[in-house]
Amino acid sequence: MKNYKERKAEFEKNLQKQTKVEKKKPVKKAPQKKRFEETKKVDSEEIRLNKFISHNSKYSRREADTLIAEGKVSINGTIVTDLSQKVTTEDRVEVNGKLVKFEENKMYTVIVYNKPKGELVTKSDPQGRKTIYDSLGVKFKHFLPIGRLDFASEGVLLLSDSVDVVNALMHSNLERVYKLKIKGYVTPSMIKAMEEGTTIDDATKGAHKNSEITSMTFPPFNAYQIQKNDKSFSKLKVVISEGKNRELRRFFGAFNADVVDLKRVEFGGISLNNLPTGKTRYLKKDEYKNLRVFLKDNAKTSKLTEAE
Q: What are the tens digits of pLDDT across the range 268-305?
């Protein structure tokens, strides 16, 4: 049996071992935390300075470029004048000495593309036909289309780098405005259907050949204007709230009126604004403002619906 002195010596020896282990623990943790912080900073996505400013302030991209060129913008306390400058969300950006606060829900981009006829709204085509991304190029290859226009249609096509924005706009009842040219007269039965809505059991004429949808219910048009009504062909301007599944081609096809030309000229108040065919533009400041109001109201409505 161990005596008191032996037990005391053994106890002190064990205590020293425990103390050494405890002292080593914080030393191991410190570099791990540092490495995590460094990785987080590296992984932050870099974006163009003018985009950061326009999405988080009252300034448009063009105004942001002017401010940068005039030396009124600083990054982390240093004035920058390079228009190609990029920043991360961790950088401190100031305009005229005022901090531009990063707001995550504002960091998205929407463009307007004036789609020409003869392009598919898809990433690739097995038949090798031209797609919108062949024209848009690498810069917008990651953008998603908000709705579609078929191969033979043209006009306003919105695209965004935000899935949430795409879904909100695509499933909205925002007005879509189209100009159409159809073969033959605009008949009284067409007018009645545009005003009152109709259900058509065989709505296959004008549909895609692979579509499985045969019958369709067409709600009343929001508005329409007959611009020309003639035996050879007629022209109309119509306003509807959806426009999917080739709705307009099917609608007029049900009255044996082929749609010769179909051009979307407006989506939710966003128009071409003299944008040439095959070209793109960014949303203007007031268009972004209206979009943010819509997204905010849409989010509130969604929450109320879920609560019910």
A: 999 998 999 999 999 988 998 899 899 988 887 766 55
Average pLDDT (88-96) is 92
Whose tokens are 């909100």? That residue is: 168
Task: Find all residues with CB under 8 Å of 192, minimum gap 6, and list them.
Answer: 198
Answer for the pair 203, 213: CB distance below 8 angstroms, yes or no.
yes
pTM of the predicted structure, to 2 decimals = 0.68
111: left (phi over 0), alpha (psi -120 to 50) or beta: beta
Q: What is the pLDDT of residues 128-157, one digit of tens each?
A: 999 999 999 888 988 999 988 999 999 999
In contact, 272 and 178? CB cutoff 8 Å: no
- Among 74, 104, 134, the domain-final residue is 104
Region of 209 (left: φ > 0; alpha: ψ -120 to 50; beta: rest) is: alpha
E strands in 36-161: 47-48, 73-75, 78-79, 86-87, 93-95, 98-99, 110-115, 144-145, 154-160
Rounded Cα distance between 58 and 52, Å, is: 11
CATH of the domain at 185: 3.30.2350.10
Residues 133 and 239 reside in one and the same domain: yes
Q: Which domain holds residue 211?
A: 110-297
Residue 59 within a domain: yes
**What is the set of active-site residues?**
150
Buried b (16+ CB within 10 A) or exposed e, 228-243: eeeeebbbbebebeeb
Query: How many domains is the chain partitioned into structurally?
Result: 3
Express each pLDDT in 49-87 by its tens digit: 998 888 788 787 788 999 999 999 999 999 999 999 999
Measured between alpha carbons, how far is 94 from 36 in angstroms, rounded to an integer? 27
User: 95: which 2 tokens?
Assistant: 């305009």
